[in-house]
Design goal:
141 residues, DUF4105 domain-containing protein, 5 helices, alpha+beta, 4 strands, two-stranded parallel sheet, two-stranded antiparallel ribbon, Lnb_N
C-alpha cells in the first residue's frame, strides 16, 4: 500500500486489526511512552526504530510481550500476538488458526471501529463549547 493519508475504508480494505484490552492505568503508561517518544531525538530507522519496534516497546511496558522479545517486523509481531488475542475468530471448524481477513477487528471488541480511529488520528480536531446552547462541537480536518 503506498504511503500517504488513507480513509478508514482504505485501511479496512487492506488491513486487519487486533484490539487488546487494557486498563485505564495501562493505557496511560502507553500514552506517556508515546509522549516521551515525540520529545525524543531518536528518529525512525527501518531496522532499528520503526513503528513495529515502537509497538513492541509499548507492549513490553504493559507486560504483554516479554522484555527479551526481539521482534522487528510487522508480520512477526502479528504472528506473535494474533494467536493469543484474536479469540475464537481466528480458528476454523477443526480448531486450526486461520489467516486474518482484511477489514476484521480481532481480539477485544470495544464497540468502536479501530479503522475509523486510525483515520481520526490522521486528522487535526478542535472542540468548541457553545454556552448558549450547551453543546460541544468537534471539527476535524
Amino acid at each position: 500500500m503506498p504511503q500517504g493519508t488513507f480513509s478508514a475504508d482504505d485501511l479496512r480494505q487492506n488491513f486487519a486489526s487486533l484490539t487488546i484490552q487494557t486498563s485505564p492505568e495501562e493505557a496511560q503508561k502507553v500514552i506517556e511512552f508515546i509522549r516521551n517518544l515525540s520529545n525524543s531525538s531518536n528518529p525512525y530507522m527501518l531496522f532499528k526504530n520503526n513503528c513495529t519496534t515502537t509497538c513492541v516497546q509499548a507492549l513490553k511496558i504493559l507486560g504483554i510481550l516479554p522484555s527479551n522479545n526481539k521482534i522487528i517486523t510487522p508480520k512477526g509481531l502479528w504472528n506473535n500476538l494474533f494467536p493469543k488475542y484474536s479469540g475464537t475468530k481466528n480458528t476454523n471448524f477443526f480448531g486450526q488458526q486461520k489467516a486474518p481477513t482484511n477489514g476484521v477487528n480481532y481480539g477485544y471488541q470495544s464497540g468502536y471501529d479501530p479503522f475509523q480511529l486510525m483515520d481520526l488520528l490522521e486528522k487535526h480536531c478542535t472542540d468548541s463549547w457553545d454556552d448558549k446552547t450547551n453543546t460541544l462541537t468537534s471539527t476535524c480536518n
